[in-house]
Design goal:
By secondary structure, the protein is α+β, with helices and mostly antiparallel strands. It contains four helices and five strands; from the N terminus they run H-E-E-E-E-H-H-E-H. It is about 60% helix and about 15% strand. It has a five-stranded antiparallel β-sheet with strand order 4-3-2-1-5. Helix 2 runs antiparallel to helix 3 and helix 3 packs antiparallel against helix 4. The radius of gyration is 19 Å and the shape is elongated.
């Protein structure tokens, strides 16, 4: 049921999280060199890999896939609520991994960090996922109350 507001929240979250694959998280300026931290690793301007971030890429993909799967599980509300919580923890892990790799990059190259908008996408995703969970919980309460009346 795509007309439910929680499904819309989950779809917006999935689309926003998939933007993480297209934009750099942070750009580092070290003198004449510019480095970009993207989901695959830290790259210099000439696309030379400084270090890889495979856990970040895997966690980003799992988070996006889980969000889209969760948006189409509208018939199983209990599983949908559990997946919302799991997805919230995955997004918190995503924030922690981005922070960790930022710290590693700043210690490896002496640079000034310029943060970009994809850093707030997991935070927005957490908020939207929790709002979706609240809507799913309301639906579950409504179904149980109607079940009691019969």
């Amino acid at each position: 049921m795509l007309q439910r507001i929680q499904t819309v929240y989950l779809l917006i979250t999935g689309i926003a999280l998939s933007l993480l694959f297209f934009f750099p998280f942070i750009e580092f300026v070290a003198g004449d060199s510019i480095y970009s931290l993207i989901y695959r690793g830290l790259y210099s301007v000439d696309n030379k890999l400084v270090f890889a971030t495979f856990p970040l890429a895997i966690l980003s993909a799992i988070t996006v896939i889980t969000t889209f799967i969760n948006s189409f599980l509208f018939k199983n509300r209990k599983l949908q609520m559990r997946l919302c919580i799991i997805n919230t923890f995955l997004m918190i892990g995503l924030i922690v991994l981005i922070s960790y790799y930022t710290y590693i990059a700043l210690s490896e190259i002496t640079a000034v960090a310029h943060y970009s908008f994809p850093l707030i996408i997991p935070i927005i995703g957490i908020i939207l996922t929790l709002m979706a969970r609240r809507g799913i919980k309301k639906d579950e309460k409504l179904v149980r109350s109607l079940d009691r009346i019969r």
